[in-house]
Amino acid sequence: MTILVVGANGQIGRQFCQLAQDAAVPFRAMVRSTEQQAWFRERGMDSVLADLEGDLDHAFDGCDQVLFTAGSGPRTGPDKTLLIDLHGAMRVADLAKSKGLSRYIMVSALRADDPLRAPEKLRPYMAAKKAADDYLKNRGVPYVILKPGRLTDDPATGRVATSVKEAGDNVVSRANVAAALLYLVRTPSLVNREFALLDGTRTPEEALF
Amino acid sequence: MTILVVGANGQIGRQFCQLAQDAAVPFRAMVRSTEQQAWFRERGMDSVLADLEGDLDHAFDGCDQVLFTAGSGPRTGPDKTLLIDLHGAMRVADLAKSKGLSRYIMVSALRADDPLRAPEKLRPYMAAKKAADDYLKNRGVPYVILKPGRLTDDPATGRVATSVKEAGDNVVSRANVAAALLYLVRTPSLVNREFALLDGTRTPEEALF
Questions:
Q1: At residue B72, does pLDDT exceed 90?
Q2: What is the pTM assigned to this prediction?
Q3: Which candidate in A51, A56, A76, A79 is best for mutational testing of the B interface (most B CBs within 10 A)?
Q4: Angle separating helix axes B11-22 and B174-185, nearest 10 degrees
Q5: In chain A, what residues touch B125 (CB-CB under 8 Å)?
Q6: Could you confirm whether A125 is annotated as catalytic?
Q7: What mean pLDDT, rounded, does chain A reach?
Q8: Among A62, A63, A111, B149, fewest CB within 10 Å belongs to which?
Q9: CATH assignment at residue B118
Q10: Model ipTM?
Q11: Which residue range is the domain that position A161 belongs to?
Q12: Cα distance from B118 to chain A (closest Cα, Å)?
């Protein structure tokens, strides 16, 4: 039941890998360069070199699920948003399908539902996330789509909410996202579901069902 | 049987509108500004002001089909590729579905099938087109997706091909694309089909069936 972590070197990716290692959840960290790989090797974590814009197929060997948390992020150029956040996610969905993976866990974004309601500078990014989510939902691969609000570096509280109304705000810490992802990975019965994710008052188990 | 022409002010859009007028095919040209609208008014063509990033719904009133030939084009910034070529196309697909349109005719691109095989600078654009095509195909709206090769300003020959192998080259004139679109609009029996389009030796009727 090894999960391939696409985007392992990102801020959420690294925190997820640390939690997974602590919980003895088998995973493989997919990274782009040997430089990025060092962080994982130092911690005795399994890792693989692969490229969302190039050779990718081999990264899936022996993996049963995939977690997509790669992101050029809203602050990189939109050419990379198209090639990584959108097309990279689509390539991973195609491979998840052809290799018969049991689940694709996608880190999306709260405003991906309706990009024109996002702040103007984030709209292109949200359009890419919306299209990537839709592509995944139509592949026939069991999925869970997690849609965090605005990410912060606040420490983990282990308490989340699944709507802005419930949360009273639109923020969520990366640490809480990583913890929620670990819960999702360990809960294979959750399939074909979407959840918004914000800082809140419930445990992942209480909130994500 | 009026067709809404989204992106009417583009190079293919204008040529299509001229052909449609000559053939007495009812259409409405959707444009972004009164400045753009002048060209259509001067020719006695029906037109409507609407915005792929804003108010759009009203443009569909009285229309039965939609032709999407809007494109920020590969030479604009990729933020506009995300907002127009991708998200604009998705919004039109959602409206085509909710309004029960009989067909969505999409102008896509030859290399949208496999963006990483396109020249590097075109890859983000092709990723957007691939995602837009996939979104359309999963909406449940009858569609035709036309995938022209590299566009030229050569004069119309009225002769096309539907593969690079058949054509012997990867180019197609905008004039031939416009003529093929007119043929598609007038052939409502063609649904849920995709065609590559290159300059060639067959009439649209011989090639697109």
A1: no
A2: 0.95
A3: A79
A4: 50
A5: 82
A6: yes
A7: 96
A8: A62
A9: 3.40.50.720
A10: 0.93
A11: 3-207
A12: 12
